[in-house]
Amino acid sequence: MQASTILTPEERLARRNLILRDAVSLLTLFLITAVIFVLTLLLFRSFTNHQQELGVRWKTRGEAALRAGQPAVAIDDLRSALAYVPSRDTEIELATALSDAGKIQEASVYFTTLWESAPGDGTINLQLARLAVQEGNEDQAVLHYQAALDGTWQGNGYDRRREVRLEMTRYLISRGEYSRARNQLLIAAGNAPDDPAVKLDIAGLLEQAHAPQDALGIYHSLVARRDPPIAALEGAGRTAFALGMYRLAADSLSHVMASAAATHFSDEKKTADRYMLDTSLHVADLDPAFDLAPRVRAERVLSIRKIARKRLSTCAASVSSAPARLAALVSQWGQVPSSLTMSQLEQQPDLEQSILQLAYNTEITTAPVCGEPTGDDALLLRIAHNPQAVEQQ
Q: Of 141, 143, 105, 148, which Cα lies nearest the Cα of 125?
């Protein structure tokens, strides 16, 4: 049996020193590795932060260029931003810049790619709708506008959807799609906040969509407020005038013209408002309203009879061969007593109404034959188109 090796004190010391040196070397290597790791991490973070800063800087510049109406500049800035920090929002802004710069095909490819990954995104659908508008593709435009209305939005989606709906209605109006535009505007009106500016915008679009009655309803609701906007009063007067509601038009426009705010109107607007007001007042002076005293109403009926008969006589004499419908009117007037008094009319309301209807028919029939009338005939023609509306409030 071999005896175990016994280390001398010198050998034990040498062994201990060797282990200590190895431990120190290992620790030093570890520390060096840790330092390198920390330095690498710091450098990476510094690079990443710098990259983020550059991305934010270029993105900010691109957005500023977009707001300043410089899409060509924005394109380069936003491309640089994407090179540093890829971002879906920046891609949308770049595609928007391409669209604004007239690079429709590139913008369309960009937005289509974005849409494929997020078909329910409201912003992307809105931009695709605008591109379709520029390309003259109505079906695609309306499809994407509707998708934008139903899509998701960042921030205040309620307001954004309303803005999209109004933008779509402006497009429909430009295409002559008045019925579809009216339907969208009625939805917008039903969901609109209690904000006069928003309601005035919707009412104005309803006028453009050939829906003055709906517009008048909104103007009325604003006029009923304690301190109504001058634009609401003017809109009420304008739409009432278009609908033949001359008493309401006169009342609204008289308030407009008496307002200090009217002094800031353009000369064109002042002239238009003054014309509508004067015309409405003259129509009201001529109209045989039912709420007038019987004697006053009879007096107006006699005046209207005189105006209409003179119009028919002048018109028939100005044409070489009178149309059959003019001859029929001459025959009908021949059946009306040539001598009438106010007392007779007061006692015979049926006769009074027959004379009025004949006078209205005369003005309507002679207009296409002898041209648009002037003076009292023009006022009477306005009444003839909708006699029941004149006195409506």
A: 148
Q: Could you give the C-alpha distances from 38 to 18, 30, 91, 365, in angstroms and in order?
A: 30, 12, 34, 97
Structural tokens at position 331: 């025959």
With bands split at pLDDT 50, 70 and 90, how would you rate the model's confidence at 1? Answer: very low
What separation in angstroms does the CA of 283 have from each of 304, 334, 375, 376? 12, 27, 11, 9
Location of structure tokens 């408002």: 273
Residues 359, 360, 365: CA angle, nearest 5 degrees: 100
State the Cα–Cα distance between residues 263 and 86, nearest whole angstrom: 54
Q: pLDDT tens-digit profile of 338-360?
A: 788 888 888 888 999 999 999 99
- For residue 97, give the H/E element and its range: helix 88-100
**Cα–Cα distance between 239 and 259 in angstroms, integer?**
19
Cβ contact 160:129 at 8 Å? no
| 313-331 exposure pattern, b = at least 16 Cβ within 10 A, e = fewer | eebbeeeeebeeebeebee
Q: Is the dihedral of CA 154, 157, 160, 161 positive or negative?
A: positive
CA angle 31, 35, 40 (to 5 degrees): 150
Q: Distance (Å, rounded) from C-alpha 305 to C-alpha 303?
A: 5
Rounded to the nearest 10 degrees, the angle between the axes of helix 267-286 and helix 246-258 is: 140
Q: Which run of H or E residues covers position 115?
A: helix 104-117
The Cα-based distances of 13 to 18, 19, 174 in angstroms read 9, 10, 100
- Statement: the pTM of the whole predicted model exceeds 0.85: no
Inter-residue contact 312 to 333 (CB < 8 Å): yes
d(CA 186, CA 91): 35
